[in-house]
Specification:
19% strand, 14 strands, single chain, alpha/beta, 4 domains, 17 helices
């Protein structure tokens, strides 16, 4: 057994009047990508300068207005990257780069060296504040920890004053915020605020990171709400979130944090980051999209995002990623496939409002097609097979026909131990039901007079195993008369229990397809289909196809 007794539950906040659970997110937060810093430092093989440049271009293209480009004092590559972007005028006027620095004098000074000549930049100052970090790592008191933050804040101000040609925005993070006593987190942030003296026209950022997830997401939201209500100069503060995913809750924490009053979100594409990763900004943004909110980030070509991410991080996107996964818009379950098929049909009545069972968004909104929505394997049902034939080939099988054919495809998938491609399904349908000519083949037919206005006589020429025959029948219509002729010829009584037809939507539209379901007096049920440019002939071919099934049995 796993030893759970060495762990302790994380204390909750005493907030009986919390407001965030009733709040609704109504607009996108300020987004800040930390792919090039937090994400990059977590890779087995960090990006090269060239790769970071290309990734930066993609982030700009996606719509990020704030991008953390690194920790310039940490390595020559990080420093060089900052200088390259600045010296080559690669930072658009509407984009602000962000850099990270510890509250240590030599690191702060080198950070500002890296930013010389920048138009506008966010300088992100941090020091660890959690109970565990203060005790185990730094052996520092609250007073000493606060003094370190204040000293760093003052030095940031001094260094910024030396570069009046640049606009600097200050950001402070009490690192490991979630492990910090919340009142103390407010206290240390307010001490930094006192140094920077923000105004509504010159705001600062207070970033409250879930550096290590330690509790359920609602506790983080409580902490954020408490800080939003107790920080000084709230109208001059941008409250920012930076959630890690140790408990798998980073997205929930971020959404709850926005509800609790946060204005800004730091995260990465696909959640790349240390340990279990960061908040997946793509998912948070697309979650807003599903609520009718402009996410202010462009993921309309989501496959490009996947390709870029996988190329430069050397990691892979999970096939079940909520929006970008290869299988996320694909249903294998028969009941799901049937519901999707019906939902897509109903969408024709209200194309301005997306409501399709099991599909949380329209795949076309992220650049996907409808082709892979339904994939057929042994778990699929009649609805899925019908969907494939409808969407890809314009064939609309009657319900009983759908059920019969689905068993054929299920058996095929079972034998091959893999899903069945649409073209294979279509070919199998034709092979199994359409224009079957063995042993009987329809050559020609003609109506003949009976002297009775309510009856039709049919004379048809057929071949049976290559030998030409003439058959005759009488009925209340051409199809009924032909059926009577076939009953007499094959010596088995049958009747039509289901018939339908429609023009073909695949290939030439001048052709028609007919579907026939026959029932014999011995209880057998047989299916056939016929295709012809003549609707009557397609119906007779369908009868022959089904009759050949009777003869085969």
């Amino acid at each position: 057994m796993m030893n759970y007794t060495k762990y302790r539950p994380y204390p909750t906040m005493n907030m009986p009047n919390r407001k965030w659970p009733d709040n609704v997110i109504k607009k996108a937060p300020i987004w800040c990508s930390v792919d090039l810093r937090d994400g990059n430092q977590s890779l087995e093989i960090p990006m090269s300068l060239e790769e970071k440049i290309e990734f930066f271009k993609f982030l700009v293209k996606t719509g990020f207005k704030e991008i953390e480009i690194g920790f310039p004092a940490a390595s020559d590559t990080e420093f060089e990257f900052a200088r390259y972007l600045i010296e080559n005028n690669m930072i658009p006027d509407d984009v602000t780069v962000q850099v990270l620095t510890q509250s240590r004098p030599h690191i702060i000074k080198k950070t500002f060296q890296a930013l010389r000549g920048v138009r506008r930049a966010i300088v992100h100052l941090y020091n660890s504040t959690s109970t565990l970090q203060r005790d185990v790592v730094f052996n520092a008191s609250m007073e000493q920890t606060t003094a370190l933050a204040v000293a760093g804040a003052k030095l940031l101000q001094e260094e910024a004053d030396k570069q009046p040609e640049s606009e600097f925005v200050f950001q402070y993070s009490p690192e490991s915020f979630t492990g910090t006593e919340t009142p103390y987190a407010v206290e240390i942030c307010n001490a930094v605020i006192d140094v920077w003296k923000p105004t509504p026209d010159k705001k600062i950022i207070i970033n409250l990171p879930s550096t290590v997830e330690m509790a359920t997401a609602n506790v983080y939201a409580d902490q954020i709400e408490y800080c939003c209500e107790n920080l000084k100069c709230r109208d001059s503060i941008i409250v920012s979130l930076h959630a890690h995913n140790d408990r798998g809750l980073a997205i929930a924490e971020t959404e709850f944090g926005i509800m609790a009053g946060a204005d800004r979100v730091e995260g990465t594409l696909f959640g790349n980051g240390e340990r279990t990763g960061n908040t997946d900004i793509m998912t948070v943004a697309m979650n807003l999209f599903t609520q009718g909110i402009d996410p202010e980030l462009d993921f309309s070509n989501i496959d490009e995002a996947v390709e870029t991410y996988e190329k430069y991080t050397r990691m892979t996107v999970h096939p079940r990623h909520p929006y970008a996964g290869a299988l996320v818009y694909t249903a294998f379950s028969g009941s799901h496939q049937d519901a999707i098929r019906k939902g897509m049909e109903r969408m024709k009545e209200h194309p301005d409002r997306w409501e399709v069972p099991y599909l949380h968004i329209d795949p076309k909104d992220v650049g996907r097609t409808y082709d892979p929505i339904v994939r057929i394997n042994s778990q699929s049902g009649k609805g899925g097979v019908a969907f494939i034939l409808e969407q890809n080939f314009g064939l609309y099988l009657p319900k009983a026909f759908q059920q019969h054919f689905s068993l054929v495809i299920t058996k095929l998938s079972d034998v091959n131990h893999k899903d069945v491609e649409p073209k294979v399904i279509f070919d199998q349908f034709n092979k199994e039901y359409v224009n079957i000519t063995e042993p009987v083949k329809l050559i020609s037919y003609k109506e003949t007079a009976t002297g009775n206005d309510e009856e039709v006589a049919v004379e048809a020429k057929i071949t049976d195993n290559g030998m030409e025959k003439t058959i005759n029948g009488v009925g209340n219509g051409v199809i009924d008369a032909f059926c009577h002729a076939m009953v007499k010829y094959i010596g088995t009584n049958f009747e039509i229990v289901n018939y339908s037809e429609h023009s073909m939507e695949y290939g030439t539209k001048s052709r028609a397809i007919s579907y026939i379901q026959l029932s014999t007096d011995k209880g057998g049920v047989f299916y056939g289909a016929g295709i012809s440019s003549n609707i009557t002939e397609s119906s007779l071919r369908a009868v022959v196809s089904a009759a050949n099934k009777i003869l085969a049995e």
